[in-house]
Design a protein that fits this description.
Chain lengths: 443, 290
Amino acid sequence: MRKILLLIVVLGLLCSTFTGCAGPQSPSGSNTGSTETAPQKKSITISYMASQDWVQKAEQDVGAKFESETGIKVDYQIVPADQYPTLLKTKLNAGECTDLFGNQSGKFDIVSLLDIEKNGVDLSNEEWAKRFDPLAAEQLSVNGKLYGMTLADVSAVWGICYNKNIFNDLGLKIPTTYNEFKDVCQKILNAGIIPIYECVSDGWHHVLWFPELGGRYEELNPGLADKLNSNETTFEQNETMLEALTQLKELIDLGYFGKNYMSNTYADTEKNMASGEYAMTVYNQGLPQQIENAYPDVKADTFGFFVIPLVDNQILNVNPAGPSIFVYSGSKNIDAAKQYLAYIAKPENLQYILDNTPKFNSLPFSGLNDKYSDEIRNFYNAYPKHGTVYQTQIKYLNPQWLEIGKDLSAMFTDAMQPIDVLKSIDKRRSDAAKAAKDPNWVN
Amino acid sequence: MKSRIYPFYFVIGTLCLYLLLFVVPSIMGLFYSFTDWSSYSEEINYIGLENFKIIFSPEEHYFSALSNTVWFTVATTILKTGLGIVFALILNEGVLFRNFHRGLIFMPSILSFIIVGLIFKSILNPETGLLNVFLNRIGLSFLAKQWLVDLKYAFNSIIAVDTWKGLGYIMTIIIAGLQSIPPEYYEAADIDGAHYFSKLRYVTLPLLKPAITITIVLNVLYGLKIFDTVYVLTNGGPGYATEVLYTSVFREFGLGRYGVGTAMSTVLFVMMSVIGYFTVKLLDRKEVEF
């Protein structure tokens, strides 16, 4: 009898342990649905996870003001870029994501990658949605509902930022073809300067050379994006893409990226471009001002831009997608999270973020004053033809960005050939499409 | 005589927790490795051995990850055990500041992998790293290499860093083993006129066998499940050159292909069980008793 009694006690204790896990909710959890009468002081902390470089200092300043006015604390969780996608997906799948989370916008990716209709909160009826740029909104909308807010300069394009002083000293002109670009690089190298600053160690930056040429691929192969999306053709079958990768490899083999391109870091770009040790780098239009802020002796107008001239590209690569903020549907603080977005999106706060973030020249909201310099305006005007980058146009491409980065690193070190990189991209696209039961792949 | 002092129901609580936290997840993992579980679809279907076919197909990079893992395990086991014995022998004798040296060698073992990784990433930077700057300063520029990005050196650099970190732990186990050898054996050997190497060969090493067995088993199992050192130092790069099994599993999870990721864990689980079992069996055959 005593044995049975003991057994019951032990089992009872065990049960109470487990039921204890699902016990009373934390204080922050009891606020759901009570934020209708905002703003008022309450002790809530909302968590916001984003990749490195996505949350600007100015946004955090506005966040601090938001906290002092509403009492809602914002806990920014910044994750290294090469680890972020995996971490975010793990958290979303585990049902334990932060109240707000960052991700690149993109009408295909937010469905296939984030399952945003399930994981995101519909923000269509927010006040700021009316002021939000329609092109940026399109990249965040599914079935007519808006799921996020882009807080980045989507007008900026990844081009080649070059040191005008070096170009002037060596009598160089802006190249318009790949061969001219090679000549320019060779002359710079002959002068003892490393032509291009590239940072492979971050895992993502060197990928830009490839999908940013989407406009050019489309120009030479009209309808290519549609065919790729309907699985009528593959990357491997495309000669232009193969040529682009072959040329990229050639630039490395000719020594135009220097010796340390594999270990260089994105964070050192300003330092290395300011020192004049390197003549060019792939960057967006914020870099000159960032350099001037970090090294006041080097003025922003020292630098100019031209488009990446692989495969003789002369098309400005536009991308309406950029780092965006989403509200997690499983959050217990949905209203507080929405309140944060609404606060950030107040015109005066957006203007503050724009004015105090060197790399932003504009933000995708109406009614703001942009800060394009003449140099940047001239750059945009120099390329009347525009084309959308492929990471936004092609399904199942952007989610494998870091994997393409690995393939390209393997290509740089001769472990893979350019054609293998294209095959590898096709393989991953096909795997992802089949897993998503995409009718163009499954049937 | 009663063989059981305590009744069985004493273990029920522990057993429940063990079943719930270890056995059930393992069986679930095994089950998922035969499915197409992915982040792209809510449905989970049984697909037989498809995931395992993917893992062993030559088009993928998993096979090199597998061979890297085996090479890492063999190399670090030999290096850590070999150097561990050497350092233990030196620091077991009357060396000046013996405990200080022991502490210094043991210290890396208690550091976090993230810290070690970040420090060595900086030390091994080809341009600004301490190692290459030092080599250049003393006129040995030809030895300054691209440690973590050159295919020839990247994986060996990881092995070196891991050996540096894990050596102290192994050394400590072996020192404990050395101290448990009764001094009478050495006295007897001295009387017989044995010199240092004879004592090492016929007294120390045979009596150290239990300690060495433990270190080898620990090193082999540790080596097979290596992840953090590689992840922090190279993240499997350049390209896929330093990919090991667990970085591949992590990559698969990142891509949302959970089925393949789980199948790889299953492969590793089977490998670890088999290798672990035979290592213990092999090394346990002639246990010395004193």
